[in-house]
Design goal:
Mean pLDDT: 84
Strand content: under 5%
Helix content: over 70%
Largest sheet: none
Radius of gyration: 22 Å
Number of domains: 1
Shape: globular
Number of helices: 20
Distance between the termini: 44 Å
Structural class: mainly alpha
Number of strands: 0
Length: 420
C-alpha cells in the first residue's frame, strides 16, 4: 500500500503544520513522532484484532475447505447469485442499523469476497455487499447504540426516540443500495476464469472440509449472537476467530508447526493495514493535543450564528461529514460535537432529533472514503483492493449518498414529522 503510506505521511505533516497556524493552538514538533507511539497504543485492540483475524483466515484458507465449499455452492445455487447478493446486502445493512456493525465486517470480508470472485464478480462486489451495506445501515441506523444511543443521550433526548423516520430512511437507502448492487452485478459479472474453475474442481468437498465449514458457520453464528446478545467486542471476537483458526487447523490434520506458520503468514499479509491504523490514530492525537479540533469547533459554531433553520441544519450536516475525515470515531465525535450543536439547534429552530440525524448521515457516509478510518483500511487489505482504486470507484457513490442524506434532512425542517 505505498500510495496509502504517502497519504498518511502527508496528513501527518499537514496536521503538524496546522497546530502552528491555528490561533490558540499548541504547536507540535517532537510530539509528531511520539504521537505515532500513542496512536498505536490507543488502537492496540483493533491492531491485534486485524493481525489475529488475518492469521486465522490464512489458516482457514490453507485447509482448502472454503474453495471446496464455494465450488459446491456455485454448482447448486450459481443461477441465483443475484438473489444471494441482494439478501447479503439487506442483512449487513440491517446489522449496521441495529447493532452498529463496523469492525465486525472485517472477518466477513474474508468470507464474502472469495465467494463473490468465485461467482464471477470482482473483489469490490464483496466490499459492496458487506462493507458498504453495513455503512449504509450504520449511517441510517435506528437502534445503533454507538451513534443513535450516544448522540441522543448527549442531546438529552429519550433513548432511541424518533425511530419511525429513521426506519424509513434506512429502508429507502437500503432498497436503493440493493438496486445498485443488482445493476452493478449485471454489468460486471464474468464467467469464472478457466484456471479458477479448474482449481475449484481439483478440491472436492471431503468430510474434513465439511467439518471445517461447519466450524466456520458456527463461528459466524456465535459472532452474531455474541455481538447482539452478549455485548461482545474486540477481545471476544478476536478470541473467537483465533479459536476458529486453531480448530480448523487441527481438523485439517496440520502439525503444530504448520498451524503456527499459517498464522504468521496471514498476519504478515495484513501487517500493512495494522500499521496504517496506528499511524492514522497518531494524526488524530496530533490534532487533538495541538488544539486544532477545539479551535475548529469554536470557529464553526461562530460561523453558524444567525443562519436560518434549513441552512443551519445543512451546515451542521456538512460539518459532521468534514470532521469525519479528522475524527472517524462515531462515539468520540458524538461526545464532542452534539453537546455543542444540540443547544445551537434550539436557537435556530432545528429539532434536536434532526441534529442527531445530521450527525448520523455525516458520520457514516464518509466512513467509506476517509483514509484515517482503520476499519476501511483493514477491510481493503482483507479484500486485497488498493486504496487508490477504491477511492476512484466509491467517491461517486459517497457523493450520491451525501446528497440523499441532505434531501432526507430537509423534511425534518420544512414539514412536521412525528418524533422530530
Amino acid at each position: 500500500m505505498p500510495n496509502t503510506y504517502v497519504i498518511i505521511a502527508t496528513l501527518l505533516a499537514i496536521s503538524a503544520v496546522a497546530t502552528w497556524l491555528v490561533p490558540g493552538g499548541k504547536p507540535q514538533t517532537w510530539q509528531v513522532f511520539t504521537s505515532i507511539y500513542h496512536g498505536f497504543v490507543k488502537q492496540a485492540g483493533i491492531i491485534i484484532f486485524i493481525l489475529v483475524v488475518g492469521g486465522a483466515f490464512s489458516l482457514l484458507n490453507a485447509t482448502g475447505a472454503v474453495s471446496s465449499g464455494i465450488n459446491r455452492f456455485i454448482c447448486r445455487f450459481g443461477k441465483r447469485d443475484k438473489l444471494i447478493l441482494a439478501a447479503l446486502t439487506v442483512l449487513f445493512s440491517l446489522a449496521g442499523a441495529v447493532f452498529g456493525m463496523s469492525e465486525e465486517t472485517i472477518p466477513f470480508i474474508g468470507i464474502v469476497v472469495p465467494l463473490a470472485v468465485s461467482m464471477g464478480y470482482d473483489a469490490i462486489m464483496g466490499m459492496l455487499v458487506v462493507y458498504v451495506a453495513s455503512n449504509v445501515g450504520f449511517s441510517s441506523a435506528f437502534l445503533n447504540p454507538f451513534t443513535v444511543g450516544i448522540a441522543q443521550e448527549m442531546a438529552e433526548l429519550p433513548p432511541f426516540s424518533g425511530m419511525g423516520y429513521r426506519v424509513f430512511c434506512w429502508a429507502l437507502l437500503t432498497v436503493l443500495l440493493v438496486i445498485f448492487v443488482l445493476v452493478y452485478a449485471g454489468k460486471t459479472r464474468r464467467e469464472p476464469a478457466a484456471g479458477a474453475a479448474q482449481s475449484l474442481l481439483e478440491t472436492p468437498l471431503t468430510r474434513r472440509h465439511a467439518w471445517i465449514l461447519a466450524v466456520l458457520f458456527v463461528t459466524v453464528g456465535l459472532l452474531v449472537y455474541g455481538v447482539t446478545c452478549r455485548d461482545w467486542y474486540m477481545p471476544e471476537i478476536t478470541g473467537l476467530f483465533l479459536l476458529m483458526g486453531l480448530v480448523c487447523g487441527v481438523i485439517a490434520g496440520f502439525s503444530a508447526n504448520r498451524i503456527a506458520d499459517e498464522l504468521i503468514a496471514g498476519a504478515k499479509d495484513i501487517l500493512s493495514a495494522a500499521l496504517i491504523v496506528g499511524f492514522a490514530s497518531g494524526i488524530i492525537i496530533i490534532l487533538q493535543d495541538g488544539g486544532v479540533i477545539d479551535s475548529l469547533f469554536k470557529t464553526l459554531q461562530d460561523g453558524l450564528d444567525g443562519t436560518g433553520p434549513l441552512a443551519s441544519l445543512s451546515a451542521m450536516y456538512g460539518i459532521q461529514a468534514l470532521i469525519n475525515f479528522l475524527l472517524p470515531s462515531a462515539t468520540a465525535k458524538a461526545a464532542i460535537t452534539i453537546p455543542v450543536m444540540a443547544p445551537f439547534s434550539d436557537m435556530v429552530g432545528v429539532s434536536r432529533q434532526a441534529t442527531v440525524l445530521a450527525f448520523q448521515f455525516g458520520d457514516g457516509f464518509t466512513n467509506m472514503l476517509t483514509p484515517t478510518s482503520g476499519v476501511l483500511i483493514a477491510a481493503l487489505a482483507m479484500a486485497k483492493v488498493p486504496y487508490t482504486r477504491w477511492v476512484k470507484w466509491i467517491w461517486k457513490m459517497v457523493l450520491v449518498l451525501l446528497v440523499l442524506g441532505l434531501l432526507l434532512l430537509i423534511p425534518t425542517v420544512l414539514f412536521p414529522i412525528e418524533g422530530f
